[in-house]
From TrEMBL:
It comes from the Eukaryota. The gene is X975_09140. Residues 46-115 form the Transposase Tc1-like domain. This is Transposable element Tcb1 transposase. One of its GO terms (biological process) is DNA transposition. GO terms for molecular function: DNA binding.
């Protein structure tokens, strides 16, 4: 053994371990080490996925609280995040979108389909106007949701916005000839205010 160690070269104990391994397994490669066992079963993982998908706005600690109430798991929030990442659910900032009814969504879709074939000449005849609103009151903090990559604009992953909190409205318009004047209006704009601005 000392001669083998001198020729390789390596330590005597390395030679001893290698020869012992070869006599036991007929291989000289290291034995594959077993991975750390999972702390949760497949059934518990499926339950976790259902809890997360039932309310996309729950954070990992809130999900863990519900999970432990319905199963005997004992894990950390970090494990919850890891399990959700395995199925593609990651924490993301929710996009704020107007809170629309089904009727309003259908009307918008109908309008978009009716005007989808407009040409440039058709658009030159129209002045497009829109408003931007800066909220003074109300909860405007970011909301985080758990979603997959393709669910960015799914209704469950959006942050609904309310139509009339206290805010300052900025009104502007544009056409094929350029942009119009910018108007700043305080409070809610009523029908007569729209006419006056235009």
């Amino acid at each position: 053994m000392r001669q083998i160690a001198a020729k390789v070269p390596c330590g005597l104990f390395t030679v001893l371990r290698t020869l012992k391994r070869f006599s036991e397994t007929n291989f000289i490669a290291d034995r594959g080490q077993s991975a750390r066992p999972r702390k949760t079963s497949l059934r518990e993982d499926r339950l976790l996925h259902r809890i997360s998908l039932s309310n996309r706005k729950l954070n990992s600690s809130q999900i863990l609280k519900q999970w432990t109430l319905t199963s005997n798991v004992s894990v950390y929030p970090r494990t919850v995040r890891g399990r959700l990442l395995e199925i593609g659910l990651r924490g993301c900032k929710a996009h704020p979108k107007p809170l629309l009814t089904e009727f309003q969504r259908n009307r918008r879709l109908t309008w978009a389909r009716e005007h989808s074939l407009w040409t440039i000449k058709d658009r030159e005849k129209v002045i497009f106007s829109d408003e931007g609103q800066f909220c003074i009151s109300g909860n405007q903090s970011s909301a985080y949701v758990r979603r997959r990559t393709h669910e960015e604009f799914s209704s469950q992953c959006l942050k609904p916005t309310v139509k009339y909190p206290t805010k300052v409205m900025v009104w502007g318009c544009m056409s094929s000839h350029g942009v119009g004047r910018l108007h700043i209006v305080s409070g809610t704009v009523k029908a007569m205010d729209y006419i006056e601005i235009l």
